Amino acid sequence: MLAEAEAEAESEAHLQLVLIPWPVMGHVQIVEFAKLIITRQYLLLPGKTLSITVLLMKLPDYIDTVSSSFADLLSTGPATCRLNFFHLPPTNPAPEWSSRTRGYFIHNLVLSQKLNVANFLQSRKAAVAGLVVDMLCTTMIDVAEELGVPSYVFFTSPASFLGAMLHCQTLHDEINQDVAELRNAESEVLVPSFAKPVPPEVLSLVLVDKHLWLDRFLHYARDYRKAKGIIINTFIELEPHALNSFSVLDSAYGSKQVPPIYPVGPILNQGPSLNSHEGASGILKWLDDQPSCSVVLVCFGSQGSLNEDQVRELATGLEKSGSRFLWSLRRQSPKDKGASFPSEYTRYEDVLPEGFLERTAKTGKVVGWVPQLDVLSHPAVGGFVSHCGWNSVLESLWCGVPIATWPLHAEQQMNAFQLVRELGLAVEITLSYHERSENGTVVAAGEIERGIREVMEGGSEVRKRVKEMKEKSRMSVVEGGSSYLSFKKLIDHMMTNISSNN
C-alpha cells in the first residue's frame, strides 16, 4: 500500500504537456517554446516536474521535402526524459486535398488526425496537464475539451494579426458584417490592433477572401476564444499598440472576451539545421570572404517563390543595385499542383537572364535552401529582402538586419505594412504583392533596385531603429525582461489550471 501511495504521489508531482505543431517549417517555433519550458523547470510549483510530448504530423515528401525532412530530424535527434517526439499514424490524403492550396491540404491532414490525437490523450489522460496547439490546429481544442484537458494556443504570427482575426470574427458574429466587403473598401480600414488605418489592398486574403474566411479562418478565430490563454511569439517592446488593443477589442460589442495573452518572444528556430544542396558550410564560407554589412540576403521562406517573369525582374534589379547578394532561389510549383511547396532548380541558367551568373560571379551567390538564422547572424549580411513571414521578421530584428519588404501570402502584407508604416523598421519594395496574383502584377526592376539600395544604406534611420530593436528583443527574454516575466505568468496560469483541473 505504501509503495502504491508513493507511486501515486510521484505521478501527481509529474506533469505532462502535449504540443501539436502545424506541420510546416514556418511553425516550428512551438518546438523551441517546448525547450524553453524544459529549461525553466524552476518556475514550476515546488515539488512539480514537467515533461513535454510533441505530436508530429508529417507531410508527404511530394508536398514538401523540407518540412518532412525536418520532422524526421526532430524525431531522430537525441531523446531526453523531458522532451519527446511522437509521430502520429499517417493518414492517406484524399486526391481532392492536392487539387487546391497548401493550406487546404494541411488543414485536412490535421482534421484527419483528430481521432489519433484523442486516442493519444485518452491513453495519457491521467498525466496530461494541458494541450498547446498551433494557431492553425485549433480543431484539437474540441478534442481536449471532451477529455477535460486545458488548452492553449501558440500563435506564430504577430499580435497585430491576431487582433485583426478577432476583430473580423467579431464583425461577422456580432454585427453580421460581410468582412469580404473590406477588400473593396473605398477608404482605409480601421483595425483596433493597428495604430494606423489599413489600406484595403494589404488586408490578408485569409480575412477578405470569402472562401478562406468562412471555411477556415473564421473557425480558427472562434476557437481562439475557447482557449485558456494565447501564447504569442512577439514581445511588448515591438508591438505595444497591438498588445494593448486586446483589453478593449470586444468592449463595443459585448462578445466573449479575449483569453489572457502571453507575449513570450522572440522565440527563434535554433533546432536541427537543414542545409541546402551544397551545404550550409559552403554558404557561410562564401560569406566569410565578403566585407562587413556588404551582402543583401534575398529569401522568401520555405513556402515562398516567384514566377519566372518576376525572377528575371528581380535579377535585373539586383544587378543594377550593385550590391553583393546571397539569393535563395526556389522553383514555384505549377498552378495545377497548388498544394505543393516550392522545389529546387536543377539549373539556375534556365530561369535567370542570359549571362547574369557570369556577370555577378564575384559579387553574388545563387543557392537553394539557406540556413536563414545562421546567415542573418553573419557579420557580412547588411540587409534582407524578405517575404515578411513573422519568423523572418523576428530573426532579422534579433540580428539587427533591416528588411526590404516583399510579402507574398498569408498575413505578410499586413506584417509589411506594420513594419514600414507603423514601426519604421523596414523599407518598402512592395506592401501588396501576392505570390499568385490574378492580374499578373510584376514588381519592376527599378523598384527592386531602389529598395535594395535603401535597405543597404549605412546610417539610415531605419538601420538605427532596427539596431535599437535588436537590443530590446534580446533584453526581453533575459531574466526580468518583458517576455521572461510574461512566460512566468503563463507557467503560473498553467499551474493554476492544473490544480483546479485535478
Automatic annotation (TrEMBL):
CDD domains in UniProt: GT1_Gtf-like
Keywords: Glycosyltransferase, Transferase
The EC number(s) this enzyme carries: 2.4.1.-
SUPFAM superfamilies noted in UniProt: UDP-Glycosyltransferase/glycogen phosphorylase
One Gene Ontology MF term: UDP-glucosyltransferase activity
InterPro entries tied to this protein: UDP-glycosyltransf_plant (IPR050481), UDP_glucos_trans (IPR002213), UDP_glycos_trans_CS (IPR035595)
Superkingdom of the source species: Eukaryota
Gene3D superfamilies reported in the protein's UniProt record: Glycogen Phosphorylase B
Family: Belongs to the UDP-glycosyltransferase family.
PANTHER family: GLYCOSYLTRANSFERASE, UDP-GLYCOSYLTRANSFERASES DOMAIN-CONTAINING PROTEIN
Name of this chain's protein: Glycosyltransferase
